[in-house]
TrEMBL record, chain A:
Protein name: 2-hydroxyglutaryl-CoA dehydratase
PANTHER family linked: BIFUNCTIONAL PROTEIN [INCLUDES 2-HYDROXYACYL-COA DEHYDRATASE (N-TER) AND ITS ACTIVATOR DOMAIN (C_TERM), BIFUNCTIONAL PROTEIN [INCLUDES 2-HYDROXYACYL-COA DEHYDRATASE (N-TER) AND ITS ACTIVATOR DOMAIN (C_TERM)-RELATED
Automatic annotation (TrEMBL), chain B:
UniProt feature coiled coil, ranges: none
Gene3D superfamilies: 3.40.50.11900
The species this protein was found in: Alkalibaculum sporogenes
Protein name in the entry: 2-hydroxyglutaryl-CoA dehydratase
Pfam families: DUF2229
Amino acid sequence: MILTFPHMGNLYLAGKILLDALKIEYIIPPLSNKKSLEIGSSISPEEMCLPFKIMMGNYIQSIQQGADTILLVSSCGPCRFGEYSELQMRLLKKAGYSVKFILADLPDQLKSNDHICGLDALFNETSLSKPQITKAVLRGIRAMNIIDHLESKAHLYAGYEINRGESKKLLKNALSTAYSIDDPHGALAILNEYKTKMNHIQIDNNKSPLKIAIIGEIYTVIDSFSNLNIEEKLMDYGVSSSRKLTPSWWIKDSLLKLIKLNGIDVKRFSKDYLSYWVGGHGRECVAEAVMAHEEKYHGAIQIFPVGCMPEVVSKSILPSISRDKDFPIMSLVVDEMTGEAGYTTRIEAFLDLLERRNASCTI
Amino acid sequence: MIVGLPKGLYYYKYHKFIEKFLDNLHISYLTSPNTNKNILNEGIRTCVDEACLPIKIFHGHVSYLRDKCDLILTPRIMKASDGEYICPKFCGLPEMIINSIPELTTITSSPLYLNDKKKIYKWCEKVGKLAGKTPSLIKESFEDALKYHANEKQGLDDEKGFSLKIALLGHLYTVYDNHLNMDVINKLHALDAGVITEECVKMIHIKSAIENLVKKPFWSNMIGTLGSGVHLAQNNLVDGIVFLSSFQCGIDSVSIDIMKDMIEDFPMLVLKLDEHSGQAGMDTRLEAFIDMLKRRKLIDLDISTHG
């Protein structure tokens, strides 16, 4: 079995550390790029959402390198993500690729056959004992937490750092150095080392940069290819940004959901605007917009793929929040046709607007 | 008090029930007219751009009713049956309306779980109480309306008189809204094709048709259309399938492709509906599809001329 998994931001690094520890053979698809999107769109339904198409591209690029098993997480609706597995399996088969799927899903939702199996198949593949597997999984989760921490710190410090571009460089170095090491312990040590370095970046607390919250659909906000590197662009402009949705948040949320304790602050902040769960992360998006206003951010940018059902609901609510609280929010819709220039222009215009709102009136 | 009933979305399935219920309670109600150009334009103007056409049309109906009644029923349908969801937009429908349409009268925003009779009753009780009716009368009217609804025949099945039979699939609010689908049912009738809709397929057939899916589908709409389509196609009960789908419908983007995969080369026409659809293009495609089905029947051999 040669395992592969779709990309989502920097999650591949945590996946690599986990699979290295489990001693399972794997192939990491090339970082999502124009080519993978092109391959993905060519065999996906036209109106499917962007993450689906990018994932399809990832699979096929991995399969071409020899992968024969795909690891995928699944959900049980009401958003389209829950149906990904069924459709992706059929489409890959139709396109002539014979692969097996390992799905992390609730057990009663799946009917196992030759092509699809539960998460236990992954652990059967390793020669490790149960405690060792637990340790490996925990190490993977720890790596993911550190990566998320590094990202969020780098995005925050971008506005405050004394040497422009230092945090961005540090983040890039951390990712590439950790990726080059095949020993899971070593990789984790490197990440830890960079965590300390990141915490000791020289910052100027007297600066008052623009602060922007990135909200919206979880895949498109996390995956830098699908949102055309918005966070990196903001870092280049010297703008501090933050987002609440991260892979580690998602894991925490999913675990808390089992005991129905998830999203306590989401419920609190969204109660004036949306008091029910609408699937996906629509309610989170509304709550984060309100939260960003209370935390004195200057503005928020919502990103979602075309046709995302839950985000359409939140997009219709955001103008009211913006009006009620005098808080600028911009919505960016991404799909395979998004052009970089138009996209950048809109971000720049939005930043200009925020800057001018900050400056005192000269007349 | 006048209650407004917007003629969109699940109105087409449950209007008999709610009308009977309100009649029993002696509450007067006002139904918005059939979808027309003005309502469509009003919906497009008020609704968020990214939403699908049925949602936009629903906004148009609510806008039409907003200054004509005291309460508009905008059900927040969370679930249609056990363990199944419907489109996420329905769960946020009242919010979408409140935040898009200005100067609105009261609208209903409590959740409605159609899988649980008690919860449906709770919802109806709230409506009745708003009009100042007594609990005993509400209970009585509710039971009566439920019985009435259960006896109503749903769906469309043209038994005889047509040379072809078409399975007309899609969400019920696209199938029965004649403006939205440009009168497709009458157009098919004019082309000598009878129509059968998913309500006329028995639930056991639907369930058995989708048994082979690896992942249990969780949308009621998808189970209905996919199951009935596959059942009708695999048993050759129809000559072809016409699938009505609104542009940007998330559920259809999944179910159409799974259906295509399951029915293989059974004839199927997918009609995408949006606010820009033109009548002529629609007619041409329907005619071409029906012509193809007729020739297929005539030749009686499913072999293409190219070998």
